[in-house]
Amino acid sequence: MGAEQQDIPLAVRKLKERDPNGVAEVISFRGETTVVLPRNRLLNLAELLKSDPELDFAFLSDMTAVDRFPIEPRFEVNYHLTSLTYRQRLRLQVRVTTKDASVPSVTGIWPTANWHEREIWDLMGVRFEGHPNLTRILMPDDWEGHPHRKDYPVEGYR
C-alpha cells in the first residue's frame, strides 16, 4: 500500500470499495474525518460501517442537523459514529434541500437514532423516512413550524 493510501482512513477506503460513487466528499479537519454521502447511499454504507468487524462503528453517539439558509442544499444531517473497539470516530453527513428535506431513518441500524431523529424533525423540519414514530419530542403537538430553522420568526408565527 502506497503512502498516500495509508493517509486515507480505513473506513473511507472501505466505503469507496463498497460503493465507488457513494462517497461525495471527504473532509479532514483538525484530526476529524467527515464523509459526505448522497442520501440514497446512506443506509447501505451505514450498515457496512456498523457490521464490518474491521471498523465496528456500532455506536451512534450523536446526530445533529445544521441549517445553512439561504445556501442550498440547505440542511446537513450529521451522524457522529464511534468505534469503541478501535477507538475511532467518524462523521457521516447527508445534505438535503429545502424542497426535499428528508433522509432515510437509520433506526434499523442504530436504534438510538430514534430520539435524535425525532428531535431533528421537531426543531429543524427534516423528515426521516421509515421512522417508526416521527412525532414531536420537545415542542407541543400543536406547535407550528420548526423553531431552529434560521428563517423561523423570533416571536413565532402569529
Distance between the termini: 62 Å
Counting DSSP E segments of at least 2 residues, the number of strands comes to: 7
User: Overall mean pLDDT score?
Assistant: 94
Percent of residues in helices comes to 10-25%
What is the CATH C level class of the domain at 3-110, in words?
A: Alpha Beta
Order of helices and strands: HHEEHEEEEHE
% residues in beta strands: 25-35%
CATH architecture of the domain at 3-110: 2-Layer Sandwich
Radius of gyration using CA atoms only:
17 Å
CATH superfamily of the domain at 3-110: NADH:ubiquinone oxidoreductase Nqo5 subunit
Shape by Cα distribution? globular
Number of helices: 4
Secondary-structure class: alpha/beta
Could you please say which CATH topology of the domain at 3-110 applies here?
Answer: Beta Polymerase, domain 2
Major sheet description: 5 strands, mixed
The spatial strand order of the largest sheet comes to: 1-2-5-4-3
Low-confidence stretches: none
